[in-house]
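Q: Could you fold this chain for me?
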Amino acid sequence: MSMVSIQPTTSQDATAAAPEQVKDPFAGMTLLTAEGQQPRAKAAVEITKNALKRIRVAMAKEGVSPEQGGLRLGVMGGGCSGLSYSIRFDSQPRERDRVFVFGAGVETPGDPTDAKPVRVFVDPKSFLYLAGMVLDFEETLMRQGFNFINPNSTKSCGCGSSFTA
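A: Sure. Below is the predicted structure, expressed as structure tokens.
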């Protein structure tokens, strides 16, 4: 007969186990990597499948051409925490923009574009703050809208659109 001894957990053991319990910010999301980029690349942006669906529907509603136009992501000074996100449609990229292409052939429910890719434009100055971020679209009882999941953000405020880097 063998005896098994159970050691009590010390506070040191508990802190060592804590990193494994960190909640994955992307749990339950389908991340889409831009054409020509590696998944989770630090020098790129990514979007979720929920965001792709919402961008396609909104672009069609606004009459923005998927071939020429796209979604512009940016950062501006201001807001409660010093910097705030800007998001809008643009008819074409600017000369120095980084252009990311997502979702070619990826079907989304209610897609008015027939699985065409969408383009995301980021200007060089904003890219300093947005590199490595993921754009999601959240639809809950409490909130509906685009959500910037940004590893460069060191602090954000309650409004969700302002941050410190």
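A (continued): Residues 74 and 135 are 12 Å apart (CA to CA).
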